[in-house]
Design brief:
Elements (H helix, E strand, L loop, with lengths): L5 H4 L6 E5 L5 H8 L3 E6 L2 H16 L8 E6 L12 E7 L8 H11 E12 L1 H10 L16 H10 L3 E8 L3 H11 L6 H16 L2 H14 L2 E7 L11 H9 L1
Parallel strand pairs: 1-2, 1-4, 2-3, 4-5
Antiparallel strand pairs: 5-7, 6-7
Helix pairs in contact: 2-3, 5-7, 7-8
Keywords: Methyltransferase, Transferase
InterPro entries: Methyltransf_11, SAM-dependent_MTases_sf
GO molecular function: S-adenosylmethionine-dependent methyltransferase activity
Amino acid sequence: MLTVDYDLLDVRPGTTVLDLGCGEGRHAFEAYRRGAHVVAVDWGESEVATTRQWLGAIAAGGEAPAGARYEVVRGDLRHLPVPDSSVDRVIASEVLEHIPDDARAMAEIARVLRPGGTVAVTVPRFGPERVCWALSDAYHANEGGHVRIYRGDALRARLSAAGLVPGRQHHAHALHAPYWWLKCALGVDRDAAVVRAYHRLLVWDLTRRPWVTRVAERVLDPLIGKSLVVYASRPALPPAEVVHPERERTAAAR
């Protein structure tokens, strides 16, 4: 289940893609299959192990084109183990709402992006998320849970404060919003029959991609899409900051 639009993010063969808070690797897998050089980062040891295992399986199965590469590392999103200006694309999907110091994480994203590079940030949308919080404390008030709900304008303002330029945005996963409302209303740890039935619908949609659910989600995404996706770029270097090695050598010889 992908939240990011890879065509909007412009992931192509040879692109360096950093997947932050990769979880079990769903976004890393798609980037790898598109021929990218993928660097997947997560703090969880089990998540890192699972992502590495599945990327290896994709490679062994010949599902990635020649030239595609991957590495999976354990790291803190506030102190990324990645050099400055070294990646073309960053994906931060459903992770910033877990980080108390999200400003530091956004600054790290800006640091590692190459000038002209793009990040796709996805977070729970304010409206559907606020309903979940109102229905259940157990949904978010736990170790590693959600520490904030972003409004779209606030997220864009924080990205701007980090030195990024927000651009297009859209919503995703409208069919998932009612599922989480049901879980929160009936108990997030309760195995209710109606929740199981709805989950089977989501699995059917994910595996079969029937036209009826695809059309329904496209219609409902602007209204109740569970996730907000914002694309932002790091500004390209102005002409005065572009390094010209030949000029530097000439100046040094004077």
